[in-house]
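Consider this:
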Amino acid sequence: MFNKVPEVTLYFWVIKIMCTTIGETAADYLNDNLGFGLTNTTYVAGALLVALLVAQFRLRKYVPPVYWAVVVVISVFGTLITDNMTDKYNVPLTTSTPIFAVILAVVFAIWWGFERTLSIHSIVTTRREAFYWLAILFTFALGTAAGDLVAEKADLGYGVSIAIFGGVITLVAIAHFGLKLNAVLSFWLAYILTRPLGASIGDFMSQKSSKYGGLGLGTTGTSYIFLGCIIALVGYLSLTKRDQTPPEVVLAEEAKEAVHPHDRHLPHPHVPHPHMPQRGEQRRPLGQEG
């Protein structure tokens, strides 16, 4: 398969933050405004997520509308996981936040154990894509819990939360570009942190509270504004293909992985196996290699 996820560009981060905002506001919209209730909202979001994941896994390359549709819905479902634990099962945010952090760390550890890479430039097998989406799901659950913990339990308010998470993301960017922090680590740290940032932005725009602040646009208006922006940007990227990973980047990434002792014996999707004949090359008889 070609790389199944987009290249990390400014467009990627803008759309990602808007998706996380929708995850916060859309869950509230279905739950409260439409009266679905928390349980029914979770069922609806879960069923839609399964359907979209089936479509995503059947593709052989990155297709922007399908990929970002999954991100939008998985952000809603990740938010609902935290909301169910908090509202339905009375699990405090001080407990759920470290729980999700540990689960996410375990997902990364197992992913690394099987693949010896967490790079998003080489999501070229079904197993890697499964690890990728599982990690994404728990970044949303963790981000929701952490965002709510900072904004509400710490009584800092939505505006201060935006400044805090935006500032931490800026520090990660400085560490990456200025101090040469590992690119994979930088990406996943930023990805986790954009979830509470987006959630705080969503709450700031939709809510109006004397205690926490907010613009009071409502969950409906906020969801429609960001959904419209996402559709416009995804349409632009579908036409221009500006967020597709260049083939040479994927080849370089897989060539680097192919020399790892863990998987030298495994053929990679795009890197020729050292013992397999190339196109136009005849296999030598046994005993005549070398």
